[in-house]
Structure formats: C-alpha cells, structure tokens
From TrEMBL:
Pfam family, any one: Guanylate_kin
Coiled coil region boundaries: none
SUPFAM superfamilies from the UniProt entry: P-loop containing nucleoside triphosphate hydrolases
Organism: Exidia glandulosa HHB12029
Superkingdom of the organism of origin: Eukaryota
Transferase recorded as keyword: yes
Gene Ontology molecular function: ATP binding; GMP kinase activity
Protein family according to the UniProt entry: Belongs to the guanylate kinase family.
Cellular component, GO, one term: cytosol
Keywords, comma-separated and alphabetical: ATP-binding, Kinase, Nucleotide-binding, Transferase
Protein name per UniProt: guanylate kinase
Guanylate kinase-like domain segment(s): 5-189
EC identifiers of the protein: 2.7.4.8
C-alpha cells in the first residue's frame, strides 16, 4: 500500500487536540479524508450529531455487535463503551481516492495493530506539551466532574507511557496548534520532517 493510501490512526489523551487537528485536516482537504466513526454507549454532548461525532447506541446494541465480531477493537472508558467497527473502517477505506482516518486510544491501537496489520496504517500520537496544561484544558471544558477529570489525567499518563514504547510511527507535540498541524500534514503526506520524537514527550509528573 502506497504511503498516500495508508489509513491514518491517530491517538492521544483526551484534551490533546486530536479532534481539532483532524477537523483542520478535513477542512483543508474537503472530501479527501473519511473519518471512521466510532460507536459509543455514552450520551451525546451538546452539538454532537449521531453518525458524525459517534454512532450513539445502547449498551445492548453495542454488545450485540461485540458478540458477532463487529468490532476491530473496543474498550470501556469512564463507564462507557467505545469501539471501532469493521464496517466503519471498510467503508472509510473503500474509495481509493479517499483516505481513512481512525481516532482511538492506546488499547485500540494495540488491537488495531494485531487485527489490521495488513492495512499498513500510519500510527500518529498527539501529545500535550505538559500534564498541567492538559489538566487546564480539560478543566476549561467544564464537561467532567473532579472524579472523571482525575481518571482522564491518569489515562493520559498511561497513554504517554505507551507512546514511549515506540508504538507510533510519529509523535506530534501540540504546544502550538498551527505548528502541530504543519507537522501532522507533512507526516500525512509522507514528507521528511523534523517532527517531535519520544524524547520530547512530557514527563508524567507535570
């Protein structure tokens, strides 16, 4: 599979800016990237549209898909189920003129690598510049209580630890949105960049 055809698997902690960067990529190249829409059992947030942000389903419907092998990967996070369905990825990869985007956490990345190695995906990790800045971003959202915020920060540390294992083809530190997008775009295009590496990942103690 040529570099221009490779699915792009983007991962990183909540609040790192994945959705913003993906949105910028789709806005810059309308119709050129198909976002693989995940399934979730959580309730929609304000402004989220079913079938675009997520496929919002009941827990029973989600588990029915699990039992029939409908997911490439799925996980439970903060009491809600999230999954990348086989159908959503195949649909996103079906047009040779459109490139597939997948947004999953580190558990999903591990499973995707095992089940979809034949797709030769580009694995990209989006990192915040520091844990403290990430905490500030999450607090400013105002969507989570203190308990959920602590869980998100703990998961961030786990995500960073996994990124340090060398699991990703590229790491982008989102300390400046425009600079991060420029780096991301160069990586997507298969261009040589001076992108961020494992050594630049923030410490998990601050």
């Amino acid at each position: 599979m040529a570099s221009a055809d490779r699915p792009i698997v983007i991962s990183g902690p909540s609040g790192a800016g994945k959705s913003t960067l993906i949105g910028k990529l789709q806005q810059r190249f309308p119709g050129k990237f198909a976002f693989s829409v995940s399934h979730t059992t959580r309730k929609p947030r304000a402004g989220e549209v079913d079938g675009k942000a997520y496929h919002f389903v009941s827990r029973d419907a989600f588990m029915a898909l699990v039992h029939c092998g409908g997911f490439i990967e799925y996980t439970e996070s903060y009491g809600n189920l999230y999954g990348t369905s086989v159908a959503s990825v195949l649909t996103a990869c079906s047009d040779p003129n459109i490139r597939c985007l997948v947004d999953i956490d580190s558990v999903g990345v591990k499973n995707f690598k095992e089940r979809c190695a034949h797709l030769n995906a580009l694995y990209m990790f989006i990192s915040p510049p520091s844990i403290r800045l990430l905490e500030s971003r999450l607090s400013q959202r105002g969507t989570d209580d203190d308990a959920v915020l602590r869980l998100r920060l703990q998961q961030c540390k786990q995500e960073l630890d996994y990124a340090r294992t060398g699991a990703y083809d590229a790491i982008v530190i989102n300390d400046d949105l425009d600079r991060a997008f420029t780096t991301m775009l160069a990586l997507v295009n298969g261009e040589q960049t001076s992108g961020d590496d494992i050594a630049r990942l923030p410490p998990t103690d601050g």
